[in-house]
Amino acid sequence: MILPTKNISPDRALLTLAGKVFDGLGSPRTVSGIWDEFRMQQEAHPVSYAFFILAIDLLFMMKLVSITDDGLIRRRVGGQ
User: pTM of this prediction?
Assistant: First the structure.
């Protein structure tokens, strides 16, 4: 599910979805704000909220994002 397989196309793999979420994180944002933008980007190929959350979980596991004290998700810079 993380990587594309013969049953999961590259545009549906979690790694691809996580990359799209990461690209949209130019500044710290709420989960719902990220979801709204991501949903509009994926309008032609809708993704469930559960897969969106799994993509964010993957970014956390890869230590590419963190959550601020006020609940915003932001990119991690330089191992912070």
Answer: 0.87
* Count of beta carbons in the 10 Å neighbourhood of residue 36: 12
Residue-wise pLDDT tens digits, 1-46: 889 999 988 888 999 999 999 999 999 999 999 999 999 999 998 9
| The two three-digit tokens of residue 73, written as one number | 């998700």
Residues across the chain: 80
Q: Please give the Cα distance from 27 to 16 (Å, whole number).
A: 20
Paired tokens of 41: 């980007």
- Angstrom distance (rounded) from CA 47 to CA 18: 12
